[in-house]
Specification:
224 residues, Growth Hormone, Chain: A, 69% helix, 0% strand, elongated, disordered C terminus, membrane, MFS_dom, MFS, MFS_trans_sf, MFS transporter
């Protein structure tokens, strides 16, 4: 009696790779959040005035910048691990919601405390986008083809650092500083990220070394 070829169970149970559109939109979200790291620099005097802090008290501006960077760096490893356990897209959506909430809180702040809290939430949301996006890349491309897409994600983040101050200056030329954060909230609206299969796995761990340079915004000491 002849037997039909037996397929390994692992092949049949292999998770579907995320769609290219999901990876592209996740990279665009990284661009927006990277730009937001620096967009506040030119707007800082206006932000301080808007939350009731005098320009002679610039030292009180530190938490507005430091709150974002603290949230960003503190959540990178935690949310990267969560993306491994719970799936990439759910973590991405959650981070986008946190970032949008922080943007709304900052845009409506009339005191320093809510502005600092809003910037902190923005940092937490931004910090989870990078490892989750790297994991999406790892899920879609095999190791031998990952170098280019990982490089694109890195270039996108660096581009955000360049565009941030320019975007801030452009918005301030035509609108109030609060428009910057309203715009950030609109750009990361939840509907911008479509649903896709959330493959489990080890994507973050597999690309951790390759993506190490993406873990912290460049020039953060200079910003502080």
């Amino acid at each position: 009696m002849s037997r039909s070829p037996h397929r390994p169970p692992a092949e049949a149970a292999a998770p579907a790779a995320p769609g290219l559109a999901v990876v592209v939109l996740a990279a665009l979200a990284v661009l927006v959040t990277a730009a937001d790291t620096y967009v506040v620099v030119l707007a800082l005097p206006d932000v301080l005035t808007g939350v009731g802090v005098g320009l002679d008290e610039l030292q009180r501006a530190t938490p507005i910048i430091g709150g974002f960077l603290l949230g960003y760096t503190a959540t990178l490893p935690l949310l990267g691990r969560l993306a491994d356990l719970r799936g990439r897209v759910p973590v991405l959506v959650g981070c986008l919601l946190l970032f949008a909430l922080g943007s709304l809180l900052t845009a409506t702040a009339t005191e320093l405390g809510p502005a600092v809290l809003g910037r902190g939430l923005q940092g937490v949301g931004a910090g989870g986008l990078v490892p989750a996006t790297l994991a999406l890349v790892a899920d879609r491309w095999p190791p031998e083809r990952r170098a280019v897409p990982l490089g694109v994600v890195g270039a996108v983040q660096e581009l955000g650092a360049v565009l941030g101050p320019l975007a801030g200056a452009a918005v301030l030329a035509v609108a109030d500083w609060r428009a910057i954060f309203w715009l950030c909230a609109a750009l990361v609206d939840r509907s911008a990220l479509p649903r896709a299969p959330a493959p489990g796995g080890r994507g973050v761990r597999q690309v951790r070394r390759q993506g190490h340079r993406l873990r912290r915004p460049r020039g953060h000491r200079a910003v502080l």
